[in-house]
């Protein structure tokens, strides 16, 4: 069982690291290519009437999504590093879990705003498979992350109490 857990933790760590690298590279590429995309008519959104202000807001929205996702991946990376070092109830895990919760909360809010904007400019059918957006999954992840944070907080308190008795 330990070998399976070690393998799964290693695979999850590799996937998180791959997410950090790919999101970072995509973010840099989109940061460079995005303004070119906005200010050329050849690739512009026809559904929103080539409105540069709306395209610029969508560009900023995508950049903010990428930054918040990267922030959450880095927090998850820190948690996985501590778990691989068998530091389960380390105070650093509490900080990383708070960062992860913040990223889920920010993604929930951003996705809700993005869904409303997409409905107003009537491009939801082209961009989303789900008309309500992804904020339900982000909100569920936020709740699960909070529960894990609560368990870690209680475990850290019990560990500190146990250390003080000894």
Q: Which SSEs are present, and which pair or pack?
A:
Layout: H1 2-38, H2 52-84, H3 91-120, H4 124-127, H5 135-165
Task: Summarize, please.
The protein contains 5 helices and no strands. It has 166 residues and is mainly alpha-helical.
How would you characterize the overall build of this protein?
This protein is mainly alpha-helical and 166 residues long. The protein has helices spanning 2-38, 52-84, 91-120, 124-127, 135-165. The longest helix is centred in the N-terminal third of the chain and has 37 residues, at 2-38. It is elongated. The two termini are 31 Å apart.
Question: Any key phrases for this structure?
Answer:
166 residues, mainly alpha, 5 helices
**Average pLDDT figure:** 77
Helicity, as a percent range: over 70%
Q: Which strand-content bin applies to the residues?
A: under 5%
N-end to C-end Cα span: 31 Å
Low-confidence stretches: 125-130
* Structural class by helix and strand composition: mainly alpha
Cα radius of gyration in angstroms: 20 Å
Which H/E pattern describes the elements?
HHHHH
